[in-house]
Amino acid sequence: xxxxxxxxxxxxxxxxxxxxxxxxxxxxxxxxxxxxxxxxxxxxxxxxxxxxxxxxxxxxxxxxxxxxxxxxxxxxxxxxxxxxxxxxxxxxxxxxxxxxxxxxxxxxxxxxxxxxxxxxxxxxxxxxxxxxxxxxxxxxxxxxxxxxxxxxxxxxxxxxxxxxxxxxxxxxxxxxxxxxxxxxxxxxxxxxxxxxxxxxxxxxxxxxxxxxxxxxxxxxxxxxxxxxxxxxxxxxxxxxxxxxxxxxxxxxxxxxxxxxxxxxxxxxxxxxxxxxxxxxxxxxxxxxxxxxxxxxxxxxxxxxxxxxxxxxxx
Length: 314
Ligand SMILES: Nc1ncnc2c1ncn2[C@@H]1O[C@H](COP(=O)(O)OP(=O)(O)OP(=O)(O)O)[C@@H](O)[C@H]1O
Ligand SMILES: [Mg+2]
Hints:
Blueprint: E1 4-15, E2 18-29, E3 33-37, H1 44-51, E4 59-64, E5 67-68, H2 73-79, E6 80-83, H3 95-105, H4 110-123, H5 139-150, E7 157-161, H6 169-184, E8 188-193, H7 196-202, E9 205-210, E10 213-218, H8 220-227, E11 230-235, H9 239-251, E12 264-269, H10 274-284, E13 291-295, H11 299-308
Parallel strand pairs: 3-8, 3-9, 6-7, 7-8
Antiparallel strand pairs: 1-2, 1-4, 4-5, 9-10, 11-12, 11-13
Helix pairs in contact: 3-4, 8-11
The protein binds adenosine-5'-triphosphate and magnesium ion.
C-alpha cells in the first residue's frame, strides 16, 4: 500500500469487563476510504475514538499520519478532523459563527478564520443557513455543518462516525458527494456506517467488526467474491417449462435454484461460460428464454452470509 496514513496493529480496548476492541489490525492508504461496518456495540465508535486520540488503547498500537496515537497525540490531532455520532457544534450559534469559532480555537487569526468559514459555507451549500442558529437546521443541514466543522483545519485524515444516520435519501446522497469530493482532493477517510450501501458506494476497503473483532476485511469486490454467487435468472414463460429446464440443467451438473410458483428459474454462475451454456442447453431442447437477468452479489449478501455463519454479536 502506497503511503499508509493509518496503521493499526493488534489494537485492543477494554472498558472494565467489556472488550470493545480485540486484536484489530488494519492499514488505510493515503486518499482512500475505509468503511467500518458492524452492528450496534460492535466497536465502530471505539475504533474511531482511539484513532482520533479521544481515548487511549488498552493494548497494541496505532499510528495516524506517521504519529503514534498515545505518545504523539497532539501531533495526530494536527492532522485529523472528526465528526462524531453525537455532534459537537453549538446549537445556540449560527453555522458561520460556529465555523469561525473553531478556526479561532485552532489558532487562526480572525481574518483567516472568517475566510475559511466563508469558503466552507459555500462549498457545503450552507449559504441560506449561515446566519441562522444551528438549532433551527434540518438534520441534513446539521450534518453538512458537522462535516464543515471537521474540515476547518483542512485535515489530511477525516473520521466520520455514522455521517448519514437518520438522514433522508437525498441528504444522504449530498453527504456522499461531499465525501467523494474531499477524497478526490486527497483526504483519507475512515467512515463508520450501519448502511451497507454507503460502504459499497464510498469505501475502497471495508472491515466488518463483530464484538470488537475484525471478522472480514478487503475491497467490497473481494468480499462479495467470497460469498460469491452471481446468479442468472431466466424467464421461461410457464411453470411447466421451468420444471423441464431444471431437470435438464441438473443433468449438465448445473445447480438451478428452488422452483417457485413463477415462470422464472435461477442458476448460480460459477464461470463466465455458464451463461451461454445454459442458453444453449435450453435452446437445444426447444425451451424459449423470454428474458435473462444476471444478479451480482452485494455487500449485504456478505453481511447476511457472515451472520448466518454464526458471526457473533453482543
Ligand atoms: N465509555 C464507555 N464505557 C463503557 N463501555 C463502553 C464505553 N464506550 C463503549 N463501550 C462499550 O464498548 C462496546 C463497543 O461500543 P461502540 O460504541 O464502539 O460500538 P458501536 O459499533 O459504535 O455501536 P453503535 O452502532 O451503537 O454506535 C459496547 O459494548 C459499548 O457498550
Ligand atoms: Mg457508534
